[in-house]
Amino acid sequence: MSQFNPKNLRVPINRYEEATWHANGKAEWENEIYSVWMDKFPVAPGHLLWIPKVNDKVHIRITYGDAFEHGDDLVKAGQWDGFNIGQNIGLAAGQTVLWPHIHLIPRFKGDCAPGRNGIRLAHPNGDHKGYY
């Protein structure tokens, strides 16, 4: 693998090696398809970033699938009560590191006030009042 050359936030990234998480130390684990990092600014303890090494649909699909499987395994093992998984795609969606990456965020009973979680609250102007 070539030398890491991290770019700044909100700057287009052309290669995996340019992404900013490389300045944060070392991946938790990796394979030829993706690497997994602790999020530098976690929304919950154990917040992981799953990063495909190639920006294409095949690598993203495999990475997303493995992230889901990891979260599901931890729920089944009783280590997590649930999880949020997803991506911010594009500046308008809040993406700051402009390389595909999947957030896997563990969730636990009582980790936030009732009715203050879930994907419907991700959009500040979303009409979620009928759901919570």
Short description, anyone?
The protein is α+β, with helices and mostly antiparallel strands. It has a single domain, classed as HIT family, subunit A (2-Layer Sandwich), CATH 3.30.428.10.
Describe this structure in words.
This protein has one helix and five strands. The protein has about 130 residues and is α+β, with helices and mostly antiparallel strands. It has one domain (about 15-110): HIT family, subunit A. The chain has a five-stranded antiparallel β-sheet, covered by helices on one side. A hairpin with a 3-residue loop joins strand 1 (about 30) and strand 2 (about 35-40). The N and C termini lie far apart (about 45 Å). The mean pLDDT is about 85.
What fraction of the residues are assigned to beta strands by DSSP? 15-25%
The global form is globular
Number of helices: 1
Q: What's the number of domains?
A: 1
The class by helix and strand makeup works out as alpha+beta
Number of strands: 5
- By CATH, the architecture is named 2-Layer Sandwich
Q: What is the element string, with H for helices and E for strands?
A: EEEHEE
Low-pLDDT segments, ≥5 res: none
Which range best describes the helical content: under 10%, 10-25%, 25-40%, 40-55%, 55-70% or over 70%?
10-25%
CATH topology: HIT family, subunit A
| Mean pLDDT rating | 85
- By CATH, the superfamily comes out as HIT-like
Q: Over all CA atoms, what is the radius of gyration?
A: 16 Å
